[in-house]
Every structure is written in C-alpha cells, then in structure tokens.
Amino acid sequence: EAIAVEAADEKKARREEIIHHRGSPDYICNWEGECKKKFKSRPNAEKHLQVVHMKQRKHYRCVTPGCHRTFRDRSSAKRHTKLPAKFICPLCNKGYKRKDYLKEHAERFCKGQL
Q1: CA 57 to CA 48: how far, in whole Å?
Q2: Position 19 confidence tier, pLDDT thresholds 50, 70, 90
Q3: Burial (CB count within 10 angstroms: exposed 0-12, middle 13-18, buried 19+), residue 45
Q4: 3-state class (DSSP) for residue 23
Q5: Domain that holds residue 85
Q6: Would 114 be classed as within a structural domain?
Q7: Which of 44, 55, 88, 94 has the fewest Cβ atoms nearer than 10 Å?
Q8: In a shared domain, residues 103 and 84
Q9: Whole-structure pTM value
Q10: Residue 113 forms part of a structural domain
Q11: How far is C-alpha 98 from the geometric centre of its chain's CA atoms?
Q12: Can you name one GO molecular function term for this protein (predicted)?
C-alpha cells in the first residue's frame, strides 16, 4: 500500500512540476519545456497533459450492435450514435453513416459485390 501511495504522490508531484500557475489566470503546460499551451482551469490543463502527452486516452465504444467503432471522447461517440445510417448494403442490409464505410464493408465482408 505504501508503495502505491508513494507512486501516486510522485505522479502528482510530476504533474505539479509540468503544469504550473504563474500568477496569471492561465495554467501553462511545460511538458519537456516545450509545450507552453495555456489553459483557464487546472482540470483542462491536466486533461491536456494526460491525453496529449501521456497518451492516457479513454476509448468509448459504440453501443450499436455490430458496430465496433471506438472514439476518444464521449461526445464523438454520442454524435456517432445519433447520425442515421443512410447507406445500406443491398446484400446484407447493414447500415452505415458514410459511403466510404459502406464501401469498406463491401470489400471486407460482402466481397466487393456492390
């Protein structure tokens, strides 16, 4: 337990070192001394650090049966599920939101018979 707490404290100290507040309303990312991107809130700066620099991305999977797409953020996944499937495969009736997705499906699963 003590090791896990120590590791968590080290991670927090590292974040504190990378994201600092210089008396202005901005939080500045100092990743490897190069990023310098500014944020109005600490949570936004920390999210930037995790997603852009530490590659700790959550993946949101589409809930539509048969769709295996994943998205980096919840809003993209929600937008995807709200779009109607306008392109329907005439061989298996599977629907797609974009023509290029239907074409990819046909090449992979319906052997290009469109």
Answers
A1: 10
A2: low
A3: buried
A4: coil
A5: 60-108
A6: no
A7: 55
A8: yes
A9: 0.34
A10: no
A11: 20
A12: zinc ion binding
Task: Quickly list H helices, 1-114.
Answer: 2-18, 42-48, 74-82, 99-108
CA-based angle 87:65:91, to the nearest 5? 40
- Residue 25's identity, in one-letter code, is P
> Hey, which residues does 39 pair with through a beta bridge?
27
C-alpha distances in Å from residue 72, one per residue of 61, 62, 87: 9, 11, 24
* 63-85 residue pLDDT tens: 777 777 888 778 888 888 887 88
- What would the two tokens of residue 66 be? 């048969």
If asked whether residues 38 and 73 sit together in one domain, one would say no
Question: d(Cα 29, Cα 41) in Å, to the nearest integer?
Answer: 11
φ, ψ of residue 58 to 5 degrees: the values are -85, 150
Greater confidence, 33 or 78? 78
41/46 Cα distance (integer angstroms) = 9
Query: Which domain CATH number covers 94?
Result: 3.30.160
- Listing DSSP states for 72-95 in one string gives SSHHHHHHHHHS---EE-TTT--E
Q: What is the count of structural domains for the chain?
A: 2
